[in-house]
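User: structure tokens for this one?
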Amino acid sequence: VIAANAPRRYVNMVSRNGRDSINNLSPEAKKWLAPLPYASPSAEYAKKFNSLMGGMNGGDNHSLAKILDSQTLWDATMAFSIAERLKNNKNSLIIHVNGSFHTENRLGTAEQLLKYSPKAKVLVITMRSEDDFTKFDKAKYTDLGDFVILTDAKVPRSFK
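Assistant:
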């Protein structure tokens, strides 16, 4: 088990104050994060993020950029945690469970991992809840991951 997440307080700090706000953290605090400066999001990831979030922030692009930077810190830290485990345990099989946005289309955490560990073998499994889960629309789902699992949206969730 790897504690891969960036501490929420630092992710929140970036979303409120921007990516430079974490530069002055103590060396002890920085141990919980990907090495600084962490990589910027890819253009494709930023486009996907802005498409999803653009209507939610009332058109405040400055705030949206800070939220994207915080999301990228989260992805980079998860990726770095995995890369460190791989570096120290070459034959490890790591199953990383995350919200789908972090790895859909092999973006986010998946692409950040390849920056830290270019030879890593990354397999992305994306799960989607669908009303008609027995019909797989290849055009709709094919780029979401190496495998896409559809589940029955009518089955009650075990969590809220």
